[in-house]
Amino acid sequence: RPTVTFDNVSFGYDKDRQILHGLSFEAPAGAHIALVGPSGAGKSTIGRLLFRFYDPWEGRILIDGQDIREVTQESLRRAIGIVPQDSVLFNDTIGYNIEYGAPWGQGDPTPEAVRQAAADAAILPFIESLPNKFDTEVGERGLKLSGGEKQRVAIARTLLKDPPILLLDEATSALDSRTEQDILATLRNISCNRTTIAIAHRLSTIADADLINVMEAGRIVEQGSHNDLLRRD
Ligand code: ADP
Ligand code: ADP
């Protein structure tokens, strides 16, 4: 599992408006870290830089010590699985949507095939937390599913690719807290050694992170465990 390092990263979408100001943090191999802060702090921008939708003005982003500018786009995409808040599902079955993410993809989304792939990727508990109906139609943009079901499908699809780095960009923020806790508990059980970066604005999402980075206006203003941060307040 790789280490992800942001080293003194500065960036803005426009020349005259800087968004990130010399930002540094590390997600050690296999750790679950969180980036938390108010809307507009620059959290999602970090994800876009990690994916190289943009490059930093200054500073470096490293995966296991290698600058991501030296990595091919293809291996970068293989290395990072991202789950956004509002995932796009295909107007097809749950099975098809999950299986789309599988390395062998788009063949035969029978429940058995999906379950076998999940077992191979060691994510069976996550698949089993889904409504057990892989041939259910999800509808246009997944609208026939509840928000929680939709995100479960999206997360399962991403996990099936077994990305060494998982980026959750407010992936559970829109759900009620019971559903959020269910999903997070399942995720924690099955991806305990996957390098995970969770972007969130709600503290309950990230209470169990190994390290929390608190962001404000493009800077990290505090770092620590949940307990460290509570003690300092
Ligand atoms: P967060 O995820 O913490 O809410 P973002 O990273 O989405 O914050 O946004 C940080 C700042 O960057 C905001 O002020 C936002 O308006 C600005 N921003 C985000 N995306 C773009 C873009 N594509 N073009 C210009 N400004 C943007
Ligand atoms: P795939 O590997 O399934 O073909 P892509 O290569 O298009 O998917 O994208 C890789 C990952 O990046 C996918 O998990 C997708 O959800 C995510 N992604 C693509 N574009 C965006 C975007 N604009 N914002 C957030 N996530 C994105």
From TrEMBL:
GO terms for molecular function: ATP binding. The chain holds residues 352 to 584 of 606 of the full protein. Keywords: ATP-binding, Membrane, Nucleotide-binding, Transmembrane, Transmembrane helix, Transport. It comes from the Bacteria. It is found in: Cell membrane. This is ABC transporter ATP-binding protein/permease. Residues 4-233 form the ABC transporter domain. Its main location: membrane.
